[in-house]
Write a structure and sequence with these properties.
Two copies of one chain form a homodimer.
Chain A: H1 3-10, H2 14-22, E1 29-30, E2 36-37, H3 42-54, H4 59-69, H5 76-111, H6 117-125
Antiparallel strand pairs in A: 1-2
Chain A binds a DNA duplex (30 and 30 nucleotides) through helix 2.
Chain lengths: ~130, ~130
DNA sequence: CTTGCCTCTGACGTCAACGTCAGGTTCTAG
DNA sequence: CTAGAACCTGACGTTGACGTCAGAGGCAAG
């Protein structure tokens, strides 16, 4: 498929795909006229890249990780690298969970008419 | 306390604290000579700001949320706003969990000598 | 009183992941 | 064959959360 179709199917912009190639995250084959062509599994690859970006990884880190994911590289170092990033993500989940719980506490307070919030309510709806 | 002490105790830079004030996330009292002074609870406030930044909220969003957290504003809209952001964070946790699980699967594969990885291992250690 | 650290206000620099525009080529439908 | 959509390569623009530097004033210790 060409770049436009991949962009639509993977839910990213054409510009983003060219950027991924520039960062060596995503390869493409070129036709005689120079147009990029992708295989079906490129959709999956792009979505994985998006997942890793979403986890806060930089394109440099993703570039280092992807060969491990492809199992084209499998050394003690690459396994350690994968485990490292897994731990970072896990820690991020823990942090976010704490943030969510803190917001929950705030929401709880704002909904309880027994709290000091009632003063505000009275002021607003008196 | 002055800005340097707050920065150290909250684990952020002095520049960041001035930036927070500029964004109206953190107020300060000024001495006659113009120096900023903070109360003890500013440490907590800064850490909350950091948590929200860590959850991907912009300073604009944080600025809109903080009055609700302080329970200085309590309207149906502010409660909805809080619930919205809570949901965004919750969704982020779900996404991150999927990313972590995908990495776990990759790690599992790279550790199993029964997989195609053994070919790579042989190539590397033959 | 002066040395040295802390603080102040601008204001420009940075970095990543693209957005966007220019100017030109290529593919496809009719 | 031709219009219009899709594609190409530069290359400059954008945004947020600060970093960093300049120039000047403030404060505690000796």
């Amino acid at each position: 498929m060409r770049i436009g179709e991949l962009a639509e199917r993977a839910g990213v912009s054409v510009r983003a795909l060219r950027y991924y190639e520039e960062q060596e995250l995503l390869a493409s084959e070129r036709s005689a006229s120079g147009q990029r062509h992708y295989r079906e599994d490129a959709v999956d690859r792009v979505q994985l890249i998006q997942m890793l970006y979403g986890a806060g990884l930089s394109s440099k880190t993703v570039a280092e990780l992807l060969p491990c994911v492809d199992a084209k590289v499998n050394t003690p170092e690459s396994r350690a690298r994968l485990a490292d990033e897994r731990e970072r993500i896990n820690q991020q989940i823990i942090d976010l969970t704490r943030t969510r719980d803190r917001l929950d506490a705030v929401i709880e307070l704002s909904q309880s008419p027994a709290s000091g919030c009632t003063i505000v309510e009275e002021a607003l709806y008196a």
